[in-house]
Amino acid sequence: MRNKGTLFFFCGKMGAGKSTVARQVASKHGAVLLSEDEWLAAHYPSLIHDFNDYITYSNLIKPFIKQHVVSLLQSGVNVVMDFPANTVKQRSWFLRVCAEAECQHEMYYLDISDEQCLAQIGERRRQQPERGEFDTEAMFRLVSGYFEAPALHENLNIVTSGNSPLKDSNE
Fold first, then answer.
1. Handedness of CA 158, 61, 100, 79 (dihedral sign)
2. What is the value of pTM for the model shown?
């Protein structure tokens, strides 16, 4: 029987450093790196103007990506998905991918303060001016309103980063 690959994914507020950590994890594990930003830019150039557009187009690409990722994992390839796992619903999608592939997963939880996220967003805006329309404090506040920290009942294999332990959802 062939060994299955491992799926790696990331949870953290906007600006927490998920993409940076994703590149590091992909390098460390010799994994295929899939970036949501790259897929969206390639498939829907100039069509994402606000958060609702992002949600719409993000949901459109997931069915295509899911089967591809399952096939890679079943073939023994490690896969790093630089896609957000910032809500229970998003994390559930990743777990369904793992269940279908019958593989293991690791979710990196980047628990970074809002102030640090905003500082990193500001730096990213300076380095990548084309992201200036979205990399704003207002967008950070909007997106952060949907953020749900992972809870023990989700049965995730979590690698933590930051300063907060996981909370039980009953607390």
1. negative
2. 0.89
